[in-house]
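Lay summary. Proteins are chains of building blocks that fold into shapes, and those shapes determine what they do. In this project we predict the shape from the chain. Here is one chain we studied, written as its sequence of building blocks.
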Amino acid sequence: MIALKYFFALFGGILADSLLGKFSTLMLGCTIFFVGNCLLFVPEAIHTWGPWGIDIPTWTVFLALFMGAIGNGLATPCLSTFIGDQFSSDQEDLRSKYFSWFYFFIQLGAIAGNIGIPFTMKYISLVVTFAILAGSIVLVFPIFVLPHKQYKKVPPGRGSFITFFAILGSALKNRGAYKRGERAPLLQADPITSVNSSDGGTTYHWLDPARLTHPAQDVDDVRRALNVMLVFVPMPFFWAVFFQTNSLWIFQATNTNLKIGGLVLPAAAISSLNPVLDVLLIPVFSNVVYPLCARFGRPLGPLARMSLGFLCTALAAVAAALVQMAINAAPAGGPPPSVFILLPQFLLISCGEILLSVTAYEFAYTQAPPSQKGMLTAVWILTLALGSAGVAVVGLIDFGTSPIQYFAFAGAIVVVWVVYGLIARSYKYDTVPQGEAI
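And here is the predicted shape, written in a compact code that computers can read:
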């Protein structure tokens, strides 16, 4: 179902850009998600409270999960981009802060879900849990929908997925026109700004031949989209380390002393430390760290932030390796290290997440052409799926309790960090963010 969610995130971005617009696609996704929740609640309510003792058909559960994945996927790339559209061109600073607060509330919801849902399922009942989930949508939906006439709704443009690949195909098909001495037809077809080369001539992008059969603006939009996608290529490696918070790092926690006072902490609960740290740190980065860097003449633009995010991720992997070494060094039958030994790696990965993930949402929105903002946000979301798949593949290798795997991840991140630096250095902004320093 998770893979299905990411697939429909891409579909939702394309649908929003090409056909329905962001608001309509968002409403469609939320409606499908709500129906999926109702399919969980209603049969469970009939089974629990009804006098008939009807058993819930298994297919309703799968259908509900299926609809939940579709609805969540369709809505996910549209929410951040739709709210981003509400800011005018002279509100760049406010829009940048919005993406931080957008992520803040996502993490706040994750904390509520991680704590509240298991609690209600264990101590109250399953039907009450489903009722809370469906009821929360009923409460929030009108708050969001009622003022819809006051929203700025950007109509869908030319960002068709078919057009995107048609332009790529046209560029390859017409590449003969790109040969020296045959560039005149390109300029006559639809001239665009060119780049002066060192020899006094003019250089062109490899997509330029597509301008013989497609409008220059559409070709330029595809060029901008490909540039953003290139920046996102290293990102799955970050997620491959990040998702260890729900797998390998929990396994580490099982080998520590989980007693805090008179309470024994479940090992799986350690993963909740990440959203808690995010909620605490996002305001610090947004309101303290970034303004201080700018004040001291070292402003951190999006590319610079993401670069520092890779550094924090590599350090988090090294910290995890050192923790594993400390666990292995504990004497047999002796007291294991305290669970607090995992705090540095969670702190570092949370800093990496804020610098990378929060910034990437903003980067995808500000650097994407207007016709492809939804699709590029969905492409960013797809990097999560690739990172998760990477963790699953590595999980097939049995490293036992060796710290080698953590050092290997750290080394891989360092290599990716270098590659990312080369990509970032060659990136040319179409819309230069305030304070970009890289």
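What the prediction tells us: Confidence is low (pLDDT under 50) at residues 187-201, 434-438.
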